[in-house]
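Lecture 7 notes: from sequence to structure.
We start with the chain below.
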Amino acid sequence: MNKGLKIAAAAAMVFLTAGVIGVWTMVYLKNTGAGENPTAAETNRHPQQVQDYGDTENPEYADAGAFIKEFHGFYNQTTGWERINDLNMPDQIARAEAAKAYAGHFIPLTEDSALKADLKAITMHADSVIAGNGDTVLTLHRYFHDLDIAVNGYVHEQIFGVTESK
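Predicted structure tokens for the same chain:
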């Protein structure tokens, strides 16, 4: 019986030691932020900023090309170079609302059927982002990228092929 108590006591000590080490490791990792993306952690500590995207009732853009160029620049700045992994979704939603409004403004003013179809697609994908689908932000970026090439002559070696406009 004495041998059984010794084995049980040794087993209890092993479990107790493992538990203490496990708790200490969790506390240490939490306090040092190990394993966290610092940008994401910073974003979660401060309220996310949402930009004002202008008067969508009376767009300041002279034409669809100016709208496309401006929005392509926004998506380059907020999703390019792996920033897609750390989106400010409230700002992306606000931008998608503006994209939908501006695209809706230019649809009836556009005679080019391919561009009209692309603007309609932007409104559809913007609705997805507005509903909270962060994955669709990349699709919107690709639309504005390809349209900037097709409409404005933006020079870039990569074309995603998502637009009807060529």
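Points to note: The two ends are 85 Å apart (CA to CA). Confidence is low (pLDDT under 50) at residues 32-47.
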